[in-house]
Amino acid sequence: MPVTVLLVDDEPLVRAGLRAVLEAQPDITVVGEAADGAAVIPLVRQLRPDVVAMDVRMPLLDGIEATRAVLRTVSDPPKILVVTTFENDEYVYEALRAGADGFLLKRARPAEIVHAVRLVAEGESLLFPASVRQLAAEYGDGDGAGNPVARAAMERAALTEREAEVLRLMARGLSNAEIAARLIVGTETVKSHVSAVLAKLGARDRTQAVIAAYESGFVAPG
């Protein structure tokens, strides 16, 4: 089955460019477009896309609030890929904190755009881990010790030693297969550990788990 994508951006040329790049791939289909975040929820419910590629800054409802709204109100929500002009942007980090699964630069090359959509859809690796780490270092709460709320949540999670090791490797951007090779275990074993980490942290995916790891001080972003 192809990966289905909903494009949300107030610039028609950006939407047209993304559509042209994505629809050139045999395994990706663009199922719809919207010009503002305010239109996202009804379109997501109608079209049930796998991925929403959404501008972070829009006039009526920005990508941050649209992400929160989708995750709050839509059952089995899609993956959300924030599209942005600037990489080192507090808006991007806030979108990740709100539940976005990754971000993509508008100036990205076609191959990078396709890779980002596929990776976010698969959900088995962290998109641009070095950039996420940089954003956490600049905009995350705390000074490396973690903010008290996030630190307490991490302590309550009571990760096992192996789960903690898996989370650290997730934060470095390793895929399930790469973690399995590093720990000399099977991929299914790693998937079980990742699922346990997400459940204990109350994270919907590995991006949110890694953000929690940075904000709690469990992993140093620097």
UniProtKB/TrEMBL annotation:
Transmembrane residue ranges: none
BP terms from Gene Ontology: phosphorelay signal transduction system; regulation of DNA-templated transcription
Modification 4-aspartylphosphate occurs at: 55
Source organism superkingdom: Bacteria
UniProt keyword annotations, A-Z: DNA-binding, Phosphoprotein, Transcription, Transcription regulation
Domain HTH luxR-type: 152-217
GO molecular function per UniProt: DNA binding
Gene3D superfamilies the record matches: 3.40.50.2300
Response regulatory domain residues: 4-121
Protein name: Response regulator
